[in-house]
Design brief:
Blueprint lengths: L6 E2 L5 H32 L4 H9 L1 E2 L8 E2 H26 L6 H26 L18 H11 L5 H25 L6 H19 L5 H18 L4 H10 L17 H25 L6 H9 L2 H29 L2 E2 L5 H10 L4 H11 L6 H33 L23
Parallel strand pairs: 1-4
Antiparallel strand pairs: 2-3
Helix pairs in contact: 1-5, 1-6, 1-10, 3-6, 3-9, 3-10, 4-6, 4-12, 5-6, 5-15, 7-8, 7-9, 8-9, 10-14, 12-13, 12-15, 13-15, 14-15
Subcellular location: Cell inner membrane; Cell membrane
GO molecular function, one term: sodium:proton antiporter activity
Organism: Actinotalea fermentans
């Protein structure tokens, strides 16, 4: 347990701060593309040419002989999102192997906050959606996920002067959140598991692990192994994105002794992250959003009708209210129970803003919604609920971030601190951290 002198959300190292800043720059572009793809999908789906959008989304391509004749929408959800979750796996492993969060005491808070940010929204959803009958309860996990791309993009644009520790906290919380979401998908949204393909997929993941542990980088070796692992996972009945996370976990974070050891520089995980993060943020997630977000709203009457469904209301309440209570409440409880304190550079309003950002559930929430109500008439209502809840959460978080950002600009703290000749801000020098 933490002692009285330990800080909650402490200032990270300068190397970690620079890494987070680089990720934020990439995710800002990805978040913008995600927004554009969503607007295009909504505009097309609500235009006189809406039938063309549905035909494109449902167009089947791929070899039927191996059960991969999938619609473009399914390819985006099962295939492209596997790239996204591969990056999630890389990021999560790096955080706990070589990042500042390798210290269990530092890792505990974002993990607990992520758990609280999933449990409370699920409970809120169950309370609200229970009015629609027991069938509606299958969507309990929809408001539990946080969209990394959207959340980090909003933070990068509106929180330019917020302390770097807060950005690290959000990134780690969102990554853990996505890992938990994948676990939920594997455990609760898998109807029929075929053991032989699953074992085959895990065996191929093992071969991939052997190759990357030997520092093999050749795409013609690794890519076929990854594709086969993904295809077998898809055939097993477990959602294929699980393969992406497992493959990411196998990649070594530190350099081997033969390669110069940890002190010599980054390992294969960072190399892959540099290569695949732009593909994930710039292609995989926006394309998925384009095929998943195209809901025909039907004007104001249609919007009122959709939001009149307790399922949609439960999603909105879970994202906007449940996430804030779960993340902020868990963080506050940890502070109370462990006597830990917020870092001197932070205020509780900063934590509240991050908790509100957690309510942007877009990508993974849409994915879980498709799994929970795949052939249900509520599928369209689910999309309206996710879009409305994420938009409201982003609006609330944006207002809080703008207010806090102005406060930090006036106080001339965080990113505006002076640097010495070595390029490292004074606050990150040994003996200078608060």
């Amino acid at each position: 347990m933490a002692d009285a002198t330990q800080n909650l959300i402490p200032r990270r190292s300068w190397a970690e701060t620079r890494r987070i800043s680089e990720i934020l720059r990439k995710e800002t572009v990805g978040g913008a593309l995600l927004l554009v793809a969503t607007v295009l999908a909504l505009a097309w789906a609500n235009s006189p040419w809406a039938e063309g959008y549905a035909d494109l989304r449902d167009l089947k391509v791929g070899p039927a002989s191996i059960h991969l004749d999938l619609s473009l929408g399914t390819w985006a959800a099962d295939g492209l999102l596997a790239v996204f979750f591969f990056v999630v796996g890389l990021e999560l492993k790096r955080e706990f192997v070589a990042g500042d969060l390798r210290d269990p005491r530092r890792a505990a808070l974002p993990i607990l906050a992520a758990v609280g940010g999933m449990v409370v929204p699920a409970l809120v959803y169950l309370v609200v959606a229970s009015r629609a009958g027991s069938d509606a309860l299958t969507g309990w996990a929809i408001p539990t996920a946080t969209d990394i791309a959207f959340a980090l993009a909003v933070l990068a644009v509106l929180g330019t002067h917020l302390p770097a520790a807060l950005r690290t906290f959000l990134l780690t919380l969102a990554v853990v959140d996505d890992l938990l979401a994948v676990t939920v998908i594997a455990l609760f949204y898998t109807d029929d598991v075929r053991v032989l393909p699953l074992v085959g997929s895990l065996a191929v993941v093992g071969l991939f692990a052997v190759a990357v542990q030997r520092r093999v980088r050749a795409w013609w070796v690794l890519l076929p192994l990854a594709v086969v692992a993904w295809a077998l996972m898809h055939e097993s009945g477990v959602h294929a994105t699980v393969a992406g996370v497992l493959l990411g976990f196998t990649v070594p974070v530190l350099r081997s002794a033969r390669g110069g050891g940890p002190e010599a520089g980054p390992g294969l995980a960072e190399h892959f992250e540099h290569r695949f993060r732009p593909l994930s943020a710039g292609v995989a997630v926006p394309v998925f959003a384009f095929f998943a977000a195209g809901v025909t709203v039907g004007g104001l009457d249609g919007l009122r009708s959709s939001l009149g469904d307790p399922v949609a209301l439960g999603i909105v309440a879970g994202l906007v209210l449940g996430k804030v209570v779960g993340i902020f409440g868990t963080t506050w409880l940890v502070a109370r129970l462990t006597r830990a304190r917020l870092d001197a550079s932070l205020a509780w309003l900063d934590v509240l803003a991050v908790a509100a950002l957690g309510g942007i559930g877009f990508t993974v929430s849409l994915l879980i919604g498709e799994l929970a109500f795949a052939s249900d008439v509520r599928a369209e209502h689910v999309k309206v609920g996710v879009l409305t809840g994420s938009l409201l959460a982003a609006t609330v978080a944006g207002a809080l971030l703008r207010s806090r950002n102005r406060a930090y600009v006036r106080l001339e703290v965080a990113e505006s601190v002076d640097s010495d000749a070595d390029g490292v801000p004074d606050a990150f020098e040994p003996g200078q951290a608060g």
